[in-house]
Specification:
Blueprint: H1 3-12, H2 16-23, H3 29-32, E1 72-82, H4 90-104, H5 142-157, E2 167-172, H6 175-189, H7 193-196, E3 197-202, H8 224-227, H9 234-246, H10 254-267, H11 282-300, H12 307-329, E4 332-337, H13 339-349, H14 371-374, E5 380-388, E6 397-404, E7 407-409, E8 422-423, H15 424-434, H16 438-441
Parallel strand pairs: 1-4, 2-3, 2-4
Antiparallel strand pairs: 1-5, 5-6, 6-7, 6-8
Helix pairs in contact: 4-10, 5-6, 9-10, 12-13, 12-15
Length: 480
């Protein structure tokens, strides 16, 4: 044995037999392999730093099993899903086009450095009519997202459908949301979609009041913070200077960098690869993601004092479904809306709310309100009703757990059930005590509906299951 190895053995207090295992020529595989890696190389992923712009990714979990606890079976599911991956909105598209025009207007014939790929790159939006529409190409395509999600949930919850009954689905009235609902239905019901799913389209008009998947709150409230959020951080100025130095004549600003980073995050929705993502550093993407966190937090999340009341519409109605159970209310309640309809619901449930408002001048690392984990494109919140047998730690009964983007998120005030679930009775009493009143908080006119009703009064026809006729343009309400 080499003398330096002997020295190490003495220093570590090991026997020569142990050293032989570590140093010998004929070491068995089990002797040197670790059962668990001590490395976590995926601490950074672009999929968590583009806010709600880019492709779906599952939420980073707390290590709680996604499957029902061993003593439990799911008997009711209430889901709300954001539409699938889409092209940029029309307003964002105009900003992107302005920054691209600035780049191409320089007359540079040969691009250098980080932008060398521009010699062969083309913009991915076919024309302005496609702004806001779901994408249809690439591995992250929005239409594929909806279909695959339906397939996955058929595998997970298919036993809750008897194969014969007509199951209503509920979509808000925007084209991309309706398209997601249809694709999800095709994936879940398969050959039976045309006969056993009944798509109900709920208008997004404010006049729907509380009988809506998209309730609004138009009272005169202070939106100063939301209206004046930062759109750049110091890293953006550094990025602009770097790109300008690589190509003489280029004069990008911090705002251009924000627009181009937005464009890059949307590009993955339509293509398998985006060269633009590699133009910017990890630090720059972390800052970009936090700017998007701020927007959701202060404009449609817990940073707006009225958003919990908006989300209470859905949460309060879902309490009724859970307490009625699958026998009376049905086992499958599938809903489809927008990101800014899910964030108020999360606020109303009181989960993922920071202890303090998010700062505007720095990043509070460890922030629970990371929108890449909350509302990526195709993001969804699933409430499971569990029927459980008695265990050493819990009684036989009915429990509730929250699943956000396929990761269990324990209810803050109650985790005493199997798999950190909450007894339905406790869950109900806590929310009944804490939920704000939407009608009074948001000054809903008495002429508007005062409660959510469509889950109990729905159509069972299949007339809306498919698009009838061409879609003139993708952006806008399909039913107002």
């Amino acid at each position: 044995m080499p003398s330096f190895i002997s020295g190490v053995i003495c220093a570590l207090g090991l026997s020569s037999g142990v050293a032989a295992v570590a140093y010998g020529d004929s070491v068995s595989k089990s002797a040197v392999e670790k059962q668990f890696s001590q490395e976590f190389p995926e601490g950074y992923s672009i999929l968590k730093h583009y806010g709600g712009n880019g492709p779906y990714s599952e939420r980073r979990s707390y290590g709680i099993s996604r499957d029902p606890p061993a003593s439990c079976a799911v008997d009711q599911v209430i889901m709300i899903k954001r539409h699938g991956e889409r092209f940029p909105s029309a307003s964002m598209g105009l900003l992107i086009e302005a920054s691209l025009a600035k780049i191409y207007g320089t007359g540079i014939s040969k691009w250098e450095g980080d932008l060398s790929f521009l010699d062969d790159w083309t913009y991915y939006v076919p024309d302005s009519c496609w702004y806001g529409a779901e994408t249809y190409s690439g591995p992250y395509a929005g239409l594929l997202d909806g279909y695959q999600h339906g397939v996955d949930y058929r595998d997970r919850y298919g036993s809750l459908w008897n194969g014969e009954s007509i199951v209503p689905m509920f979509s808000s009235g925007y084209s991309r949301v309706i398209n997601t609902a249809r694709k999800f239905g095709e994936g879940f019901f398969g050959y039976n979609y045309s006969t056993n799913a009944a798509l109900n389209i709920i208008s997004e008009s404010a006049s729907m009041g509380a009988n809506s998947l998209t309730p609004t709150c138009d009272t005169d409230n202070d939106t100063t913070t939301c209206d004046n959020l930062p759109t750049t951080f110091p890293q953006f100025k550094i990025a602009a200077a770097r790109l300008n130095s690589q190509n003489a004549g280029l004069n990008l600003t911090e705002s251009d960098v924000y627009n181009l980073m937005s464009m890059a995050s949307y590009e993955l929705n339509a293509r398998a690869f985006s060269d633009w993502i590699n133009v910017f550093t990890q630090d720059e993407w972390v800052s970009f993601g936090y700017i998007n966190d701020l927007s959701y937090y202060y404009c449609s999340g817990p940073g707006d004092k009225n958003m919990a009341a908006v989300g209470a519409v859905y949460v309060n109605a879902s309490l009724s479904l859970l307490n009625q159970g699958p026998e009376k209310a049905g086992p499958l309640i599938f809903n489809f809306a927008h990101d800014t309809d899910i964030t108020p619901i999360v606020s109303a449930l009181g989960v993922l709310v920071p202890d303090e408002d998010l700062p505007l001048d720095r990043i509070p690392f460890g922030n629970p309100y990371s929108t890449g984990d909350i509302v990526p494109q195709g993001g969804h919140l699933t409430i499971e009703r569990l029927s459980c047998n008695a265990t050493a730690m819990s009684k036989k009964g009915t429990y509730v757990r929250l699943v956000l983007n396929e990761a269990v998120v324990p209810f803050n005030e109650c985790q005493s059930g199997p798999g950190y679930s909450c007894p339905l009775s406790n869950y109900t009493s806590i929310l009944n005590k804490n939920l704000p009143n939407y009608i009074s908080t948001c000054s809903v006119p008495k002429s508007y509906p005062q409660y959510l009703d469509f889950w109990w009064n729905y159509n069972t026809t299949t007339r809306l299951n498919f698009q009838r006729g061409p879609i003139a343009c993708q952006e806008g309400d399909a039913m107002s």
